[in-house]
Amino acid sequence: MKLASLKSGGRDGTPVVVSRDLSRMALATSVVPTLRDAIENWGQVAPELQTLSAQLEAGKLDSLPYDPTTLASPLPRAFQWADGSAYLSHMRLVRKARGVEMPANSQTDPMLYQGGSDAFLGPVDPIPCVDTDWGLDFEGEIAVITDDVPMGCSTEQAKSHIKLILLCNDISLRHVMRPELIKGFGFFQSKPASAFSPICVTPDELGKAWTGGRVNLPLLTTYNGEDYGRVHAGKDLTFEFPDLIAHAARTRDLAAGTIIGSGTVSNEDHDVVGSNCLAEKRMIETIRDGNAATRFMQPGDTIRFEMLGEDGVSIFGAIDQTVVAG
Amino acid sequence: MKLASLKSGGRDGTPVVVSRDLSRMALATSVVPTLRDAIENWGQVAPELQTLSAQLEAGKLDSLPYDPTTLASPLPRAFQWADGSAYLSHMRLVRKARGVEMPANSQTDPMLYQGGSDAFLGPVDPIPCVDTDWGLDFEGEIAVITDDVPMGCSTEQAKSHIKLILLCNDISLRHVMRPELIKGFGFFQSKPASAFSPICVTPDELGKAWTGGRVNLPLLTTYNGEDYGRVHAGKDLTFEFPDLIAHAARTRDLAAGTIIGSGTVSNEDHDVVGSNCLAEKRMIETIRDGNAATRFMQPGDTIRFEMLGEDGVSIFGAIDQTVVAG
């Protein structure tokens, strides 16, 4: 099933089920007040939402036209957003750009940072650009939402805790990042509010494209109306989602509603498939030409992320954002 | 007023007002379902909670005996926990022990990391020790809870966003931390769930000890039943809470219910006043003797943090935790 949250209602939004073809959506408040409550009581609530979803598909529910402008991120806020860096080709390029070595154990020890999760941007919300000198960049990612994960959970056990899948635009401030990371406490100012796809889906919606650990489909990235990337999310990732979850749960429980991100989806053959952030392209230019011709985002720039199923239908709806001054 | 959350109820607990002398507490569910809801609607809810608090003091409310074993952290979970390192004497000791200079901008650019906030330990909950080789340590801190803080908020404006004050035990895994920080993404596995004091208070409860930016009182720290620290929270801090809030809000809004921590309370005259973590004591031993005699926490060890008002009454109640294997 496909789930989303209307912006209206409280800080956690109002839950809706969305039709597979993204034409209609129906209120799910008869089942649960918010999607946050749903994931916190998933065992009980999911079957009821499935029933509602089937009724929507069968045309047996009052419904609204699908309209992403009315939608928040599926979880408009979360108690935990932990973002990885599972595609090492991305890490290799951005570290080269920052003049930082790859960690010695990068092939065996996942990178994961604690992200801000108190208020996400909506999927088609403007991205505020306060200062163009901050180096505003997008990052196209896959993310999963878990139920309660106990401390010490194994990679194998972690698979069953993945309940929902979605896309993420992990917005980054590249020129704020370099001095911030040198201080040694990780990202804070350099990672303002992220945005997620309008829709999150249960793994079955992906069919064979979901392996239990990764999404075997390309992420379609359009920057300022032009193809920017068709990077395959199932290729060149060193750590699958269960690896990231087990890593996150090594020393503590993860509460239901935890969102785990893949990091920027990146392939080794970036000259063929493109990229999912500007920093990668700038580094490729720097390596090739000695300097980066591509500038960071400015007011008016647009970024769109989408993923199509084998039937050509958008799985998660599109993240589609415009940068605005302010 | 003094506020707390009973563990019973949902993941956000059940709100109570607590008497100034910490003898009684009364349900606040007639006003608001949870303390999280209270801080998210503070302007409307605070006066009603004040009225309830006055009724409790006047003996006009049904009440329970104060019992910290029934209490969760005041916010049992939060959408944001951002922890600083405002006492540079702590950082200076760390770097001195490692033979490393202080960063050039340490006096002007606050250190702040994004902490895990999906589930905090209760104030007298056991601290799980899965592996004694992880180097389990306590950190005694002051923390504040804000209402909604807009991006770009100034230090001066930040003062008015501090609505509640409390203590924190920011539990750290020292031997997990060093390899984790080298990776460059900040803390994740090395910072398991923190615990907070049983009670959070409005600033007026501190009287003259609250300056608008700092708490001018010593933090009383008892480790395994013995005095370990009487470190003054108003001395030797380079960044006050409004500085930390303004730093956190530079590139994004902070949602109501954000908890901002001071970092380990530390004074320059640590040989007189003691410390608020084991790592500092180990550093002092290392500088003096060439090696650290003090071991990290093991099952059975106990740690207690408390702060007394000028009248000798515990302001926040005591964080009082025992390490258990598990």
UniProtKB/TrEMBL annotation, chains A, B:
Domain Fumarylacetoacetase-like C-terminal: 81-324
Pfam families, alphabetized: FAA_hydro_N_2 (PF18288), FAA_hydrolase (PF01557)
GO molecular function, one term: hydrolase activity
Record's signal peptide: none
Residues annotated as domain Fumarylacetoacetase N-terminal: 1-77
InterPro entries attached to this UniProt entry: FAA_hydro_N (IPR041072), Fumarylacetoacetase-like_C (IPR011234), Fumarylacetoacetase_C_sf (IPR036663)
Gene3D superfamilies the record matches: Fumarylacetoacetase-like, C-terminal domain (3.90.850.10)
Keyword Hydrolase tagged: yes
Keywords: Hydrolase
Name used for this protein in its record: Fumarylacetoacetate (FAA) hydrolase
Species whose genome carries this gene: Shimia gijangensis
